[in-house]
Amino acid sequence: MASEHTITQALLEWINSFSLGKTLRSTEELSDGTILWEILQDIDPQYFLNELPERNTSDHWVAKLANLKHVHKHLTGYLRMQTGSLPSGLDPSPDLQAIAEKNSVKETNKLLKLLLIAVIRSPNPERFVNQIQDLSLQAQEGLKIAIEESNGELVSTDVEDETNEDTKKQDLPVDLELQFEERVGKVIAENDRLTHEKKELEKALEDLHNRLARLQENNDTLQSRLASTEDRLVTLKSGKGDIGVSAKALESKTRQQEDLIASQEERIAAAQDEIDSLRMTVESLHIKNQRFQKLQDDYDELKTERDQLARKANAAEKYRQKLQASQDFEKENQSLKNQIKDLQQQLKDADSQQRWSAEREVELEEYRRVLPRIEQECSEIQNLKKQLEFNNHALTERLSSAEEQRERDDALISELRERIRELEGSPGSPSLTPGTETPKRGTLQEDFEGMGIQESQLSVLPTIFEEAELTDSSKAENDELRKEVESLKEQPSVSWLEEELGKFAAYDADDDSQVGSQFEGFSENFSHVHRLAQSNSSQGYVIEPLFSPRTHRKFSDEYWKLYDHYTQALGKLADAQDSLEITKRALTDALAEVGLAGKEKVDMIHEVKESNSAEVAKLRAEWDEYLHRIHLLEAELDASQELVREVCAERDELRSLFDKKQVEMHAEDQEMSNEMKRLLAELMAQENGDSADASQKSGPELAKEVAELIEKYLEKLAKRAEVSGFPPVPSSCAGSTHSGKVFSESSFTAAGNAGLRTQPRRVPEFEAKHTITEKPTEPLKRDYIHHQNEHIKFLQERIKHFEEDDAVDGISKEREIAGCPASLCHPPLLTGSSVVQLELQKIIDKQARELTLMSSAWYDLQGRLQGNNGTVSRFRNGANISEFQKGWLGKQRSLVAGR
């Protein structure tokens, strides 16, 4: 809706469209009523004939008020004469005193709206409508809104009065929003209807105007012709006209003209009559329209009343449905109360079960706190056992070799003594005092030379004395080794280790004896499923893959023991339920007997019981058996569900661990491949002289980076192979009887000996498994370095020992050359470990020579590359064995191998 200021501006612009002789700027200039009276005289001068009572207002509001009252009186009378009643949408009595005294804009607008309606309802509104159409669009919109408000207020006011009357009659509440919508709809319909009628009337009026214009033109033409004819007639009468024209012709022509004039006047009169009849028709149509509007209002009222009754009927139906629904809700509420009681009882049972589960969780948490300490102790025991077995094996080997050497030395000494005795018995030889010892530093040889014995016969004596010296040193070494072995045997750690192993063996025996009794009452299928899940379980390794296999087995065994305790608890719960059922039944029987008060009835009941006691006992036994079976099945079902959940969780953890390791290995391989491609591209660009892609580093530096990258990648592959070669032993080795949990000492020693004979010493299992993690801790790194240093020292000692064995072999060969008999000078046989160590030493020597050759070739190739004197061949595909053997490195390896 437009604001009051917009309507005021539109009304002022409309007032200025009249010929007033000046332009109005505000509504204050209309407060004396003079301009309004002039406009009214312009609208209908026949009705507004009087003059204003005060021509000179002299800026006094009393005179202005008198003029305004005069204007308002005649204006309202004119509207009543034209329309029969004042428009109800407008205020018929604005505050004239406020206009005259205070120049009220609001009251002035009310008076101007009355003036606007009077202009529209005047007998000749076409001229004023054209003036309105010549105004600006904003002014036209404001005047349109003012007119529509006037008409809408008229309709809505009548409807509101009638609605108020109906409300008083019926005493029914009416929704204000619906009433407002009705009023708006009626106003819009009335506006549309008036607009349509206005267009039709404007069209009819335009046709009448056109017809009047044509008739006016014809009348003007006839008047001009009549005037010319009269002039000619006067001329002829005066004798100045054309004599040749006859008077009769002129008279006939005059009569024709008069007839034509008469016919035109008749047509004009007929047109005027037709215009009057059309005006009467318009007035009758207007009256009919008002009647139709009244009928339309009555119809709308009936429609509104029908809608109200329909809404009331719908409300009554809804109330009936709500009443029915409330009854249903009451029934459902009662059933829900019963369900709430059942749920409360179940909640109490669940609370008791939860408390029991909380106690079990506390016990399990205690077990979990104890497990790391046990695993740490087991790991320390395992490491100590491995170290002791390794030392024992090394000392045993040294002891055996020393014993064999001592035996050979003793045999050699005995043979030499026999030969000395034989030589002493020869002629010219000095007598050998029994019990004397042979000198060690060559005194016997000097005595033989003094006696003149040939040097050829005594050439073997220096070798003999050297053998004696080596024999004494080997005896001393053997004594040291024996002392070392005795000290190791006397150490308390070994006995403690044996005690721990005995404890684990006894623990396994107890577990084996308890396996058969822990699933009493359960089905064979459940026992079979339990054994299968336990044998295929990987508990422990999924939780902590850094521990040793034995630790993982121990953790898995602890877990399955907890599960067995859980299963046994379920069985005990089933037994408790059985006993509870029996107690309830006995209590029910006792209450039934107490309810029978008479002695005769009690005697009759006893007689009935005695007669049917066997059958009742049988039925009760069957009933108890069925209940016990049901409770056992429920316990078995709970245990099976728990087992399935654990197996599924374990499977998901293994899958996630496997996927994680695959992703890590793939990422490492991809990163290594990208780095290798980058370095090779830089090396290729530097070789081709491409300055854009070439790196700032020199060729040898790039080649060195490539070699370091290859070596790093090979180390990673070796670690992966080592880790994959020693996976953690799962708990499946335990089987259904838990056998094989702890390796025996002899089997572990045999496995260690076989490993030492077949391959070099490897990192212990706990160290190899730490390579799985991405960031091993610093203590593990220090342990690994320490073990590597020990391994290097051990290999150096072995090599030194093998050199001593080679020296012994050299002595025996010299003895054979000197002519020693085969029975006396045959070299001792080497043991299997000595042969393996010799082969390993040869492999080490070959690898050292190969590394030396590769280093020299590397520096030679780098020198050529730096001086641009050599070429590097690159294979598009992998080189086969024949092409590899043709290369320089293949030839060097062939030379090293002696081929």
UniProtKB/TrEMBL annotation:
One example of a Gene Ontology biological process annotation: cytoplasmic microtubule organization
Chain intervals for the UniProt region annotation (Disordered): 421-443
Record-annotated HOOK N-terminal domain positions: 8-148
Keywords from the named record: Coiled coil, Cytoplasm
Keyword Cell cycle: no
Top-rank taxon, per record: Eukaryota
PANTHER family: GIRDIN, ISOFORM A, HOOK PROTEINS
Name of the protein in its database record: HOOK N-terminal domain-containing protein
Organism: Aspergillus hiratsukae
